[in-house]
Specification:
The complex is a heterodimer of chains A (1474) and B (365). Chain A has 1474 residues and is of the alpha+beta class. Chain A has 52 helices and 34 strands. Chain A is globular and about 120 Å long. The two termini of chain A are 72 Å apart. Chain B is α+β, with helices and mostly antiparallel strands. The chains are: A alpha+beta (1474), B alpha+beta (365).
């Protein structure tokens, strides 16, 4: 296949640039939105065109040369040329103007400008009056044009990227531009090329017909996806020849579902081959690990899934903007009233002459209009005259200010994540100030509060718990040392047991380089997202996604390690009698961990090269067949697997002693020795007992070869979920190393060094319905068909084999194991670990064949295929044998508790909506200080509507009682006129835990109001086990019903709906792809950034914008009223005393920049103080700056100021020979000064910029006026203010007037400011005052403020210190019962045990909670009698606050413990229905 | 804030770090002055403002008080004339009347004579724009297209010069002042030029270019309908005070801001008896009554006044300064009072509050 290069094609860099740009410059994102609209529009057009067909038929283009093109049925489909621009040169003007008229304000102003052309009503010279609206629209148009031009350039670049299309004339693939790709063309792609369109894969150089695809550009997931060649084309012997392609493809119409594609291919002999998404290469993806691939284009250009999916940020209206719109209507009302006054006034004024005076000029024809008609005309004239009462420049100004705000947020170094090299991304430009008004935060748990870095912590095998103390310790120290490289390796040396040490020691330094190369390679092609997270600062080693060293290196538990080895030895020594079962389950357990997943392996040395073929065994070594033979011989009883080699272990031991200069732990050493000896003895036994054909030599050979094989010692595991990777690494730590994986085979290295290759018969992937995954493999040695299943404990436990097989002892044993495992699982959950159960099942050949047929049918089914697939899967996953369970820790992110505490202090209610288990969620909630130990926590789990209702009622009553009880206390302190005590609801000390099913009941049963009434009184709510839909419903409920400002934060695809439902959606650009980020308004990389984002930027943005908006209203009203007052002196004739040009410029230039700068830069309180005093946030939450009251006050002030600005000069010049413009000029100057000084009063920060702008504004006004008044003799006919400014500048009166009027106008405001400072200061003022103090005093004052705040709220909150020790003590309350032996008890736990016993928990002498608790328990038992009975012990409503009076402390602690255990017991949770 | 300069990636990566610049502007840490309303600054600003305003106010009031002014309403004094003028058909009938008044004391300094009109809405919008500045600049413009309508052309198409309602309704009374000195009547010498703005007279108003005025105007233009004389005969004595350059005309064309206004009419020429100003005694205005005011319930005045640096006799500005100065001072005192009282209370309250908090805490423990 030859390739010819055509000129004029850009490199593939353009595409990268495109994507890089999009993610990097999120600020310029509104184009995405418009793009979307455009797409929709196109879609509509297309739909209309092809309404009647819902199928797309595609045939090869090759038979149709350029001549016969018209006969090609493909010709109607979109070409690959994309055009995301909105306009072209010709259509720009009309289209843009049309677009702009969508904004109501523009229509209004154009209408007024047009009205001005009607002679009878005109107020200004018509030509001039169109200027403001033209300027405004021109600015917007320029902005739009620039954005469109950028899009155009990008489009062009992309359209001209090169790709290879098969040409009939040349009989080869010829390079052409992307835009020339047509549906039906054959395109060839090579490794690392970007797919130009949606292509059906027909050829892959891979021998299995697989093509690997990186979809990071689409969804941000960096793991590779596999695509397969269409069935029937996978024969690799012949190279795919496009010219022989005769088939017809019938598929669905273009849609935006990235994960679905349906269609079939009809061969000439009418045989149909099904097509699915597995066969489709999507535009924008990158080909990886595949030398070449070819296919036929199915969708091109705008019809590709990538383009249809290109959803940008939405336009959101912020709360201030909503309020602003309301106030604009108020202004319209005001305008109407003023115009009415003018109209009526003019009518009366005209009517009072019986003869027309000389100044009442008749119209063109010399006729006079009747007073009523004159009044009506005057109404219209007045609208024109007073039009700027509606601030014309407000919208543009707000847009500009928000751009500035976004720029500053984007550039905040504190919101920059060094690890990921990602600053905050502001995707929505319109809602910055909403950040300052958040009342509710809805947070996801996994990946948001936690790192989503899974660390293997504990496991239980066969009912035995292995606590992995060493691992635990390692994690701790690792954290403490902040991954100092030196110490880190030392630590590794010290704690790693011999098995692992050799590997660890050799890997670390040697793999560093290749890994980095692999990373940088990816980073270059991808340019964004997760791959960047590799460049960690803390450890110079890099890692592939999901595998930080913390996750990667698991220190095995020494006990377990011994067990594993013993197991291996036992199987080796043919002692199938006593411990057979246990030992196999150990090995089985780890095999399952290694196999039962979808982890892909790539080696560090070959970047992104999948290890698909087991590494070739050296010629000297023995083949797998040979091992197999050995096994066949060795296989006696139901020996399943395991292999041990004295040689390998001793070898490793040697390496250990050689490499480790420090003293190994005594235990490990002894263990090692033991191993050695037993291994050698085992070997001897083997020799003795082994069959004759195989001599020692051969066996030795086997082992040696196995261990000597040049296995790449390090693998990059790429898993779909971090849990999987964690498990694989855990297995690796115990010597079960996943070496390679293909769809057909998986190879695992055993601890002995042997490689076992399992044939994968089926993989039943994970789905959220089944909540488990299974792998069906054929054991290479025993040839047994084994199903390994891994899944949520609740599911697996139900699927276990319960049938009695007659063998009572084994049944009993199984039962015991199950019980113990369950206990351990409960404990894990309580400790905040994520649990997974591992189970297995051995199938016999017949059963499997039966099932396989069934499965094949299901796969071939067209209708309800999904259901069938699930059904078949469920069919297989029954009667499992429990192997064990794992506990994986999802580590809390840095600074989460601190952030949550701050947010709570700021008056924000934090709710956690998670799909996780209740126990895990509750625990995380405690550890991140979402719940306090002294909070009353209500847990509601029910499936019954009535129960739910009564529960809600009861709880609500209880909460209310407490609520009211608090109130009078508060009033006692409420004397102080402080803002916080007056407006704030008492901070409730309740927590609510609710699960998904209960939420369902609430939503379906119409109990939303009750739920809300309860929830709003709780300070935090935890929704566990909730689906994405429920999450978004909860958010919507709060948002709609409580009219609250909501913020959702999440990182995964399951949070997308919730993110979109909230007022502000925040995505965490973490590990779970880009979906959440794509849906969000802001994307941050750590949860802790939320603190600064909200408390500082939110506060600032809100304060700035609110002040600016209100200032704009003030400014316009103040200025326009000057004209209005003048109407009383000119017979309501619509005269102006200010020249029109000066009037226009007043708003457009003289007074426009200072508020803009103010809106972008003012800081009322410094960032440090805002962070230290989160209460300041309430300022924005309660909309204290911009609400109806402040609006009205400002309006009144504006009226007052305009009165002063008008009447002081009026009274001064009254009865004098002043002319119209000479009167207007001082007024204009005075109002300018007043308005700017008003701004200066509002301004809290004066930087050089502000000062310069302020001075420039005044200077510009003066200079402009002087020049204009000197130059313009006939500028704006018929009148002009010639030489007036110059004359007045010589007049002392002018200066005296300009001095006194602003003073009088601003005096009241200043007095109020002064009084506010002296009288009860608001918190913001307090903070400002504090800032002036020296450092130490500041701390003192802040402390004082906070303590006062707590005292006034009436609910004493413990000081942080006491909180801490409480948390610590209680979070480990339940540790001990599950530890197998006291010796294994970690020192930490014993310590805490002691603390918890001695710690007086009940601090509050608040009996009611306890009463309630008891009462509830009684009622509960009565209620449950019928169904579950009291013995089930579950409290659907667990009041777990330590509310007991002091003497009861100990007892209650026990009670609490007990309750908690019952409560956390999975079975009881799920079974209780009331 | 932490100093984060050292966190920048240490290795020279191919791709520049996306770490934001650590500049004072971008991190919003520009050095800033944060004005604070402390009690000291508040009080000092109030008292300083008060003191300043009071001082200026006193000066202004004093200077305004030194202005001598006499205002005589003559709209009804010549009842015959006003009746005559009510009927516009009598526009070309002459009517004279005289008004006597007595000056009790000398008016020293430059004495200005104004005519004042009441209830004459010169600032009416359609009136204000009814002019053609281009025409007044002497340019040959098509006034048909100007704002002068309907006072632009006659039916036969002859354009009016000057056009527009303002010009048409020019104040056309003639006022002469006579001093009855020892039973002899002396006409007070009055200056009719130099009353208008220099820029108006020399820049804004120009006569059409021609060898003489009458030829410039007589050919092709006509006087406005209310006018008795054509524009080139406004001042028969002074050729340079004629046409568009007539001071009375220029002053009239500067439309006043309010319905009640005065326009400078003449200045007393300080010669002979009047070198010091107007001496006390009996005076008579001889008025040729042409301008009708009763039609719109207007009044006509004639005003004699002196002028000081702070303008005319209007004492308002001085009063405004005095009042606001007083207000500022008073507010300063009030705030001082509040502050002193509150400081005591505050400390008391805070003490109580703290003790309460301590009690609460103790009870909890």
């Amino acid at each position: 296949m030859s390739r010819k290069i055509a000129p004029g094609c850009f490199s593939t860099m353009a595409w990268k640039k495109h994507f890089f740009k999009e993610t990097c410059c999120q600020c310029g994102a509104p184009d995405m939105e418009t793009q979307n609209e455009e797409l929709e529009k196109r879609g509509k057009v297309r739909k209309r065109k092809k309404k009647n067909e819902n199928k797309r038929v595609i045939i090869s283009n090759l038979p149709f040369g350029s001549k016969k093109w018209k006969e090609n049925p493909n010709r109607h489909y979109d070409t690959n040329e994309i055009e995301t621009t909105k306009y072209n040169i010709l259509t720009f003007l009309p289209k843009n103007i049309y677009e702009q008229f969508h904004r109501f304000a523009n229509i209004y102003f154009v209408f007024i400008a047009l009205l001005n052309f009607v002679p009878v009503v005109q107020a200004f010279q018509p030509e001039v009056s169109v200027i403001p609206i033209c300027v405004i629209m021109a600015i917007t148009a320029i902005k739009d044009a620039w954005e469109d031009f950028r899009r155009y350039k990008l489009d062009k670049e992309i359209n001209h990227m090169g790709c290879y299309i098969y040409s009939r004339e040349e009989h080869a693939y010829v390079e052409k531009c992307w835009k020339d790709v047509r549906v039906g063309d054959f395109v060839q792609l090579q490794c690392n090329e970007i797919v130009p369109a949606d292509i059906l894969l027909l050829y892959s150089s891979d021998q299995n017909g697989i093509c690997h695809l990186e979809t990071a550009n689409l969804d941000g997931e960096t793991n590779l996806k596999q695509r397969r060649v269409v069935t029937g084309f996978s024969s690799q012997d012949t190279v795919f020849e496009p010219e022989f392609f005769q088939n017809t493809i019938i598929c669905e119409m273009p849609n935006n579902d990235l994960n679905k594609f349906k269609g079939y291919m009809e061969q000439p002999d009418h045989e149909q081959v099904g097509l699915n998404i597995e066969n489709l290469l999507l535009r924008g993806c990158t080909i990886r690990n595949t030398e070449a691939a070819a296919g036929i284009v199915i969708y091109a250009g705008h019809e590709t899934k990538a383009m249809l999916n290109n959803s940008g940020p939405r336009y959101k209206r912020s709360r201030i903007e909503q309020r602003m719109n309301r106030d604009i209507f108020l202004c319209v009302g005001l305008l109407f009233v003023m115009c009415l006054v003018g109209a009526v006034g003019h009518g009366i004024w005209t009517g009072k002459f019986w003869e027309h005076p000389p100044y009442d000029v008749p119209d063109w024809n010399g006729n006079f209009v009747a007073p009523v008609l004159a009044g009506f005309y005057m109404f219209l004239t007045m609208i024109i005259l007073l039009q700027i009462l509606i601030p014309i420049s407000l919208y543009v100004s707000i847009e500009l200010v928000k751009l500035g705000q976004v720029f500053l947020i984007h550039n905040d170094i504190d919101l920059y994540d060094e690890e990921a090299d990602l600053p905050i991304q502001c995707r929505a430009l319109t809602i910055t100030e909403d950040l300052g008004q958040i009342q509710y935060i809805f947070s996801d748990k996994t990946g948001t509060l936690t790192e989503n870095k899974m660390v293997f912590r504990r496991c239980t095998v066969d009912g035995l718990e292995f606590s992995h103390q060493e691992n635990d310790r390692r994690l701790k120290t690792q954290k403490a040392l902040d991954l100092d490289r030196e110490d880190f390796t030392k630590l590794q040396h010290f704690t790693l047991p011999p098995m692992n040490l050799g590997r660890a020691a050799t890997i670390k330094p040697s793999t560093m380089r290749p890994l980095r190369r692999c990373q940088s390679d990816r980073a270059r092609t991808q340019g964004h997202t997760r791959s960047r997270s590799v460049g960690r600062r803390d450890s110079s080693q890099s890692q592939v996604a999901f595998s930080s060293p913390i996750e990667k290196d698991v220190t095995p538990d020494s006990r377990l390690l011994r067990q594993v080895r013993e197991a291996a030895l036992q199987t080796e020594s043919f002692s199938p009698f006593i411990h057979m079962k246990t030992s196999t389950s150990f090995t089985d357990f780890f095999l399952a961990l290694a196999i039962c997943n979808s982890v892909l392996v790539s080696t560090a040395t070959a970047p992104r090269q999948r290890v698909t073929i087991p590494p070739p065994i050296k010629p000297s070594g023995i083949t797998l067949e040979k091992i197999h033979q050995i096994f066949q011989r060795l296989k006696l009883a139901s020996l399943s697997q395991s292999f041990s080699s004295s040689q390998s272990s001793s070898q490793l031991g040697a390496s250990f002693s050689a490499k480790n200069t420090e003293e190994p732990l005594a235990v490990l050493e002894s263990c090692d020795n033991e191993n050695d000896s037993s291994a050698s003895s085992g070997g001897q036994e083997l020799q003795d007992k082994g069959s004759t054909e195989i001599g020692t030599a051969s066996l030795d050979e086997v082992f040696r070869s196995a261990t000597n094989t040049s296995l790449p010692t390090d693998f990059c595991y790429e898993a779909e979920s971090p849990d999987e990777a964690a498990l694989v690494y855990a297995a690796q730590a115990y010597g079960f190393i996943l070496v390679s994986r293909t769809p057909e085979q998986v190879t695992v290295q055993l601890p002995q060094g042997t490689l076992l290759t399992f044939d994968i018969l089926y993989t039943l992937g994970f789905d959220s319905v089944r909540r488990r995954m299974s792998v069906v493999v054929r054991h290479p040695l025993t040839k047994e068909i084994v199903v390994y299943t891994k899944g949520a404990d609740s599911v697996i436990m139900d699927l276990l084999d319960n049938s009695t097989k007659g063998n009572i002892s084994s049944d009993k044993r199984l039962k015991r194991i199950k019980e113990r495992t369950q206990k351990h699982l409960d404990y894990y959950a309580h400790d905040g670990l994520r649990t997974l159960c591992i189970a297995k099942k051995v199938l016999n050949e017949d059963d499997f064949q039966k099932w396989a047929n069934f499965r094949r049918e299901a796969e071939a089914a067209i209708e309800n295929r999904d259901e069938l697939l699930i059904e078949t899967a469920q069919h297989l996953e029954t009667k499992l044998t429990l192997l064990g369970a794992t506990g994986i820790e999802d580590r809390l992110q840095d600074g989460v508790p601190d952030t949550i505490v701050s947010l709570r202090e700021a008056g924000i209610k934090v709710w956690v909506l998670t799909g996780d288990k209740q126990e895990t969620a509750v625990n995380i909630a405690y550890s991140c200080k979402l719940l306090n130990q002294r909070d009353t926590v209500f847990t509601i789990n029910t499936e019954n509507k009535e129960t739910c209702e009564s529960l809600l009622n009861l709880t609500l009553e209880e909460v209310k009682k407490n609520y009211e009880y608090d109130k009078p206390q508060r009033k006692l302190f409420g004397i102080i006129p402080t803002s916080f005590s007056a407006t704030e609801a008492p901070s409730p000390e309740f927590g609510l835990v609710i699960d998904g099913r209960t939420l369902d009941v609430i939503f379906q049963g119409g109990l939303e109001e009750k739920f809300l009434a309860l929830a709003r009184r709780c300070r935090s709510v935890l929704c566990c086990r909730s689906t994405p839909l429920q999450k978004s419903m909860v958010v919507k409920l709060v948002r709609r019903q409580l009219k609250a400002m909501t913020l959702s934060i999440g990182d995964g695809a399951n949070d997308v709906s919730m993110i979109q439902a909230a007022n502000v959606g925040i995505g965490i650009s973490g590990q779970e792809g880009m979906q959440a980020v794509m849906a969000s308004d802001f994307a941050i990389s750590r949860f802790k950034h939320l603190k600064k984002l909200l408390l500082v930027h939110g506060h600032w943005c809100y304060a700035r914008l609110a002040k600016m908006v209100i200032y704009f209203f003030y400014k316009n009203v103040c200025y326009v009223n000057l004209l209005f007052w003048y109407q009383f002196f000119c017979g309501f004739s619509g005269s102006t005393m200010i020249d029109y040009w000066q009037m226009i410029f007043f708003n457009l230039f003289f007074t426009s920049v200072p508020p803009l700068l103010f809106g972008a830069l003012d800081r009322d309180v410094s960032a440090e103080t805002l962070l230290r005093l989160p209460e300041l946030y309430k300022n924005g939450q309660n909309s204290e700056i911009y609400n109806l009251t402040t609006f009205i006050i400002t309006m009144l002030d504006a009226f007052y100021q305009s009165l002063i600005c008008f009447f002081v000069p009026y009274l001064m010049y009254k009865d004098s020979d002043i002319d119209v413009f000479s009167f207007g000029n001082p007024i204009n100057t005075i109002s300018l000064l007043t308005i700017l000084l008003h701004q200066a009063l509002e301004m809290k920060t004066w930087t050089v910029l502000q000062l310069v702008v302020m001075i420039c504004s005044v200077a510009f006004y003066l200079i402009f006026s002087i020049i204009y008044n000197a130059v313009c003799l006939l500028c704006s006919p018929p009148t002009n203010p010639y030489w007036i400014m110059e004359r007045q500048l010589k007049d002392p009166i002018f200066y005296l007037l300009c001095l006194i009027t602003p003073i009088i106008a601003l005096l009241p405001r200043f007095v109020i400011f002064a009084l506010r400072g002296t009288l009860g200061a608001s918190l913001v003022l307090k903070a400002q005052q504090i800032e002036k103090l020296p450092k130490e005093q500041q701390d003192l004052e802040i402390q004082k403020l906070r303590s006062r705040k707590e005292a006034t709220s009436g609910a004493p909150v413990a000081s942080p210190a006491s909180n801490d020790d409480l948390d610590q003590s209680s979070s480990h309350l339940c540790v001990s019962p599950f530890l197998p032996s006291a010796a294994a008890l970690p020192p930490r736990d014993t310590e805490n045990q002691g603390v918890s016993a001695s710690n007086p928990l009940g601090r509050r002498t608040h009996d009611e909670g306890y009463y309630f608790f008891n009462r509830w328990a009684e009622e509960e038992s009565a209620a449950t009698d019928s169904s579950a009975g009291p013995s089930s012990g579950h409290q659907p409503l667990v009041a777990s606050r330590e509310t007991a009076p002091g003497q009861d402390g100990g007892k209650l602690t026990k009670d609490y413990l007990k309750n908690f255990h019952y409560g956390s017991h999975r079975r009881s949770v799920s079974s209780v229905t009331l | 804030m932490k100093n984060k300069t050292n966190v920048l990636p240490r290795e020279g990566e191919a791709q520049p770090s996306r770490c934001p610049d650590n500049t004072a502007f971008k991190q919003q840490r520009l050095p800033a002055w944060k004005p604070q309303l402390t009690i000291a600054s508040v009080l000092s600003s109030f008292f300083l403002t008060g003191a300043f305003c009071l001082t200026v106010g006193v000066c202004l009031v004093l200077s305004a008080n030194s202005v001598r002014e006499i205002q005589i309403d003559y709209s009804d004094k010549c009842s015959d004339c006003s009746k005559l003028r009510e009927n516009s058909s009598n526009w070309n009938k002459e009517c004279h009347c005289s008004v006597n008044f007595t000056l009790k004391e000398n008016i020293l300094g430059d004495v200005f004579m104004y005519y004042g009109l009441q209830n004459f809405y010169q600032n009416h919008r359609r009136y204000v724009i009814s002019r053609s500045d281009a025409q007044l600049l002497g340019r040959n413009v098509n006034i048909q297209r100007s704002y002068c309508a309907p006072f632009s052309t006659y039916r036969n198409g002859t354009p009016m010069a000057p056009c527009g309602a303002i010009a048409n309704s020019i104040f056309n009374d003639t006022i002469n002042l006579f001093y009855n000195h020892n039973s002899s009547v002396i006409q007070v010498p009055l200056l009719k030029t130099g009353n208008s703005w220099w820029t108006d007279k020399n820049v804004k108003f120009r006569n059409p270019e021609s060898y003489n005025l009458s030829s410039a105007f007589a050919a092709g233009t006509a006087r406005p309908p209310y006018w008795q004389k054509p524009v080139y005969l406004l001042d028969e004595e002074d050729e340079r005070n004629n046409g568009y350059l007539n001071d009375d005309f220029i002053i009239w064309m500067r439309v006043s801001a309010f319905a009640t206004f005065r326009n400078l009419y003449r200045r007393v020429r300080r010669v002979r008896h009047f070198t010091e100003g107007l001496p006390a005694g009996n005076y008579t205005f001889h008025i040729s009554y042409n301008f009708p005011v009763t039609r719109f319930k207007g009044r006509k005045h004639v005003i004699l006044s002196t002028v000081v640096w702070s303008g005319g006799s209007n004492p308002f500005l001085g009063i405004a300064y005095l009042v606001s100065g007083t207000a500022a001072t008073l507010t300063g005192f009030v705030i001082t009072g509040i502050h002193l009282k509150l400081r005591k209370k505050k400390t008391y309250f805070q003490r109580r509050c703290e003790s309460c908090f301590i009690c609460l805490q103790r009870s909890l423990h």
